[in-house]
Design a protein that fits this description.
The chain is an alpha/beta fold. Helix content is about 25%, strand content about 25%. Strands 3-1-2-4-5-6-7-8-9 form a 9-stranded mixed β-sheet. β8, α4 and β9 form a beta-alpha-beta unit. The two termini are about 30 Å apart. The model has no long low-confidence stretch (mean pLDDT about 95).
């Protein structure tokens, strides 16, 4: 196994896409190991360190066993591993639709423009909002989606102001997602309706189906 082909992989699985405008579709997931952020509400801490080395070919062979053309690469923070770009390119060249969940703290210019970014802008209650790399907003494509994970009323107001400041809803699908178990979807929905925001309320569909503690879904 060549080092320039190697990725540290936490898990590969077949499930229902639970977030983004692709929610509800069957999807192959590749969860990569390591993350440079420590969000207060993180639900995948097991991906910080757990994982094993797999070659790009091995990963693609696993993915091709699943009956879907939609692939999501997530983490952790998938852009931390430089060989992820080889995997992304190979998947796109084979005709797959590739979603990439990124925490917004790393440079996105290097990502293949055919991929779709689910770009997570960190709100203050995450404890990581100082890590937001704001210049990345200049490189988002119209096909990319912008996500805010919201813990509180103050998080919501902050996200609303960022949305308006950068006019994100004019260029992208914008997702407002309540932190599971901390902010009720009804409360967030009421705020969105009151302010007339052009955003999509996002619930974590996989948690509604299989429960908050289930892995590999």
């Amino acid at each position: 196994m060549r080092e320039n082909d190697l990725l540290i992989v936490n898990e590969i699985f077949f499930s229902i896409q639970g977030e983004s405008s692709h929610a509800g579709k069957t999807c192959a997931f590749v969860r990569l190991t390591y993350c440079n952020l420590r969000c207060t509400y993180c639900d995948t801490e097991y991906a910080f360190y757990e994982g094993k080395g797999l070659s790009v070919d091995e990963i693609i062979n696993r993915i091709n066993q699943f009956p879907t053309e939609l692939v999501e690469i997530t983490g952790g923070e998938p852009l931390l591993q430089k060989n992820v770009h080889k995997l992304i390119r190979r998947l796109l060249d084979s005709g797959k639709t590739v979603l990439i969940e990124t925490g917004g703290s790393l440079d996105i210019k290097v990502v293949d423009p055919r991929a779709i970014l689910i770009y997570d802008i960190k709100c203050p209650d995450s404890g990581m909002h100082a890590q937001n790399l704001w210049r990345n907003l200049n490189f988002l494509k119209t096909s990319d989606e912008v996500k805010f994970v919201i813990s509180s009323r103050s998080d919501y107001q902050w996200a609303r102001d960022i949305l308006r400041q950068y006019q994100l809803d004019a260029k992208h699908t914008v997702l407002f997602s309540p932190v599971w178990g901390k902010l009720s979807p009804k409360e967030l929905a009421d705020w969105i309706l009151h302010d007339g925001l052009r955003v999509r309320l996002q619930l974590q569909l996989h948690k509604l189906v299989w429960g908050a503690e289930a892995r590999g879904v």
